[in-house]
UniProtKB/TrEMBL annotation, chains A, B:
<comment type="similarity">
    <text>Belongs to the LysR transcriptional regulatory family.</text>
</comment>
<feature type="domain" description="HTH lysR-type">
    <location>
        <begin position="5"/>
        <end position="62"/>
    </location>
</feature>
<dbReference type="InterPro" id="IPR036390">
    <property type="entry name" value="WH_DNA-bd_sf"/>
</dbReference>
<dbReference type="InterPro" id="IPR000847">
    <property type="entry name" value="LysR_HTH_N"/>
</dbReference>
<dbReference type="Pfam" id="PF00126">
    <property type="entry name" value="HTH_1"/>
</dbReference>
<feature type="region of interest" description="Disordered">
    <location>
        <begin position="190"/>
        <end position="213"/>
    </location>
</feature>
<dbReference type="GO" id="GO:0003700">
    <property type="term" value="F:DNA-binding transcription factor activity"/>
</dbReference>
<keyword id="KW-0804">Transcription</keyword>
<dbReference type="GO" id="GO:0003677">
    <property type="term" value="F:DNA binding"/>
</dbReference>
<feature type="compositionally biased region" description="Basic and acidic residues">
    <location>
        <begin position="199"/>
        <end position="210"/>
    </location>
</feature>
<keyword id="KW-0805">Transcription regulation</keyword>
<dbReference type="Pfam" id="PF03466">
    <property type="entry name" value="LysR_substrate"/>
</dbReference>
<dbReference type="InterPro" id="IPR036388">
    <property type="entry name" value="WH-like_DNA-bd_sf"/>
</dbReference>
<protein>
    <submittedName>
        <fullName>LysR family transcriptional regulator</fullName>
    </submittedName>
</protein>
<keyword id="KW-0238">DNA-binding</keyword>
<dbReference type="InterPro" id="IPR005119">
    <property type="entry name" value="LysR_subst-bd"/>
</dbReference>
<dbReference type="GO" id="GO:0032993">
    <property type="term" value="C:protein-DNA complex"/>
</dbReference>
Amino acid sequence: MGETLETRELAHFLVVADELHFGRAATRLGIAQPALSRTIQKLERRLGVVLFDRGSRGVTLTPPGRVLAGEARHALAAVQAAARRTRRAATATPHLVLAMKAGGDFGLLPPILAAYAHEPESLPVRVVFAAERAQLLRDGRADAALLFDPADDLHGFRTETLRRDGRMAVLPASHPLAHRASLRLADLPAGYLPGPGDEPSRRPAEDAAGRRPAPATVAELLQLVALGQTIALVPRSLPAAMPLRPDLTGVPVLDAAPVTLVLAWPAHTTSPARAALARPVATVRTGGEAAGCPATA
Amino acid sequence: MGETLETRELAHFLVVADELHFGRAATRLGIAQPALSRTIQKLERRLGVVLFDRGSRGVTLTPPGRVLAGEARHALAAVQAAARRTRRAATATPHLVLAMKAGGDFGLLPPILAAYAHEPESLPVRVVFAAERAQLLRDGRADAALLFDPADDLHGFRTETLRRDGRMAVLPASHPLAHRASLRLADLPAGYLPGPGDEPSRRPAEDAAGRRPAPATVAELLQLVALGQTIALVPRSLPAAMPLRPDLTGVPVLDAAPVTLVLAWPAHTTSPARAALARPVATVRTGGEAAGCPATA
DNA sequence: TCGGCCGATACCCTCCGGGCATGGGCGAAA
DNA sequence: TTTCGCCCATGCCCGGAGGGTATCGGCCGA
């Protein structure tokens, strides 16, 4: 009764929880449907819990099933992270992987990396660009990431604050609001898209309804603004890393919640090379008011 | 090459990493030694990494092996937490488990629980006493815990500050320093034991050398003080929950690092009942100066 | 040099995971 | 109401992974 679950069981369960259809889930897993049914049944018996309601009108997650879906995702990410980090620890050419979005450093990264290179334990740093930086960090594909505090999910990470920043609206230079010195949220027309760092963690390539997803990069977002399709809310420091094209204008939004740019890393890692990466941040940080106040808020 | 590791492999690996001896590890696992050897070999082949140095003078972890040991512990804790939380989500009588050390609430818990009981989503709360509260939280045996900030490992937890507090030395009333109004760390004789919340996370029942471990509870610690075997450094609010016996005296230590008592819970849980537990904390909190500043420091 | 410790190898067996065929419940269509 | 069809469960078989016993081989200490 108390044996530990196997990762295969959790992975198979997650696919069923995702598809809510044993047949399709089995296809996705490359196995036959009966085998999958039995795996789930055994999992349910082992847990002593019914995970799915099998109505003839399809399959539904029970409340405990919903709990397991969330927990299983975390557990599997932890297992994958174990494999990835172990492999990378054995690499002949050790290095750190830093995940960020293009322009997502407000121009602060170059001096940090320069200072880091002088640290005694420093390693070469490879920068990767990705929207799902938090996920990369969780499953071991990255050693550190530049994240935004209220927008990204910082749970389980340790962080060092780089900069706390207000927001501004980016609009076409021809927009009626473009000449204003400042704005309030109420001034903005309804339906503007979120700014960088507000993206949802899961971003399907395409909606079930076929709608296009929100833009994944700041460049895409600003492109949409230039096309007059939206208004963007971005950190005021953004132009330091990515100047606005001339046909766009930035106007501070006074009452938009501020964003905090942080350097984040998995809480339990112990690499001295990674620890040294946090050190130069303190010297580079500008305008930081929450020094030493870690995240996980 | 890229398949995910199985929990059984990780568990077996951890025992070998702990024992550094295949034979003993196999016995602990209840299997024969050859099977264990093969499991580890397969794990190494799958990862493409050598995890152990097999010298004839015993077995040693390689550096990547040490990485995997840390990662595997976290991954397995996550898997076990998944099972525990799922089972408890299916319980007929839902409730929350709150882990603490006896006296570890500074007397603040009763009003919190009283206020919590009036929250709309509240559940019955079962309090369990344990030294390894953080571990209980990590593997799903508890839903929340009262932890001490610099002492406990708060990585991966969300927290709500209950109280920040200086420390005092507890000494026998007959001790030469007992009449002082205040002390500094330099005044204390070398070799005093840590106070509550300074305990290491792993506490073997007995040393390899056979020495007794540090006391696990405050009551044990104060007992040792009364016996003149040590001096204790405890939070100044401790007597609010656990009055000092008359033959003991508390003297503030001005330059000892303050302790922060926090309510902690796993970062990614989503139970509304658990979320409601954090709410009364804000109303009960006294002397808190770091409100809203979360942990993970 | 020899015996003992300890991990690796060889070989066998059992059982678990998976495949195929089929049963059975339930809703929708006729 | 009957029938068709979708979809999950069940029955049965097979291959392989995991485990057990016996044994080898390297290394150290006596």
